[in-house]
Amino acid sequence: MAPSSKPGIRFTVAFPDPHTHLFEIEMEIPAFREKVASLDVSLPVWAPGSYFVRHFARHVRDLAATANGGSVAVAKVERSRFRLTPEAPSKGPFRIRYRVYAHDLSVRTSHLDGSHAFGNGTNLFLYVEGGLHLPQSVRFRLPQGWRTTLALPYERGAYHARDYDELADSPFECGTHRILPFTVRGVPHELALYGKGNENAEQLVGDLAKIVEQGARLFGRLPYERYAFLTHLLPARGGGLEHAASCVCGLPAFGFSKPDSYRDALALFAHEHFHVWNVKRLRPLALGPFDYSKENHTHDLWAMEGVTSYYERLLLVRAGLSTLEEAGKEWGKALKDHEDTPGRLVQSLAEASFDTWIRLYMPDENSPNVSESYYRRGMLVALALDLTLRRDTGGRKSLDDVLRLLYKECADTGLGYVPGRYESAVSEVWGKDSTGFFARYVRGTESPDLAPLFDSFGLTLGKKADETQALTADFGWKTKTEEGKLVVKETYAGRAAYVSGVYAGDELVALNGFRATAEAIERLERDAEPGSEVLVTVFRRNRLHTVVLALTRREVFTYELTAKKKPTSTERRLREGWTSSPKKASAR
Question: Architecture of 285-459 per CATH?
Answer without folding.
Answer: Orthogonal Bundle (1.10)
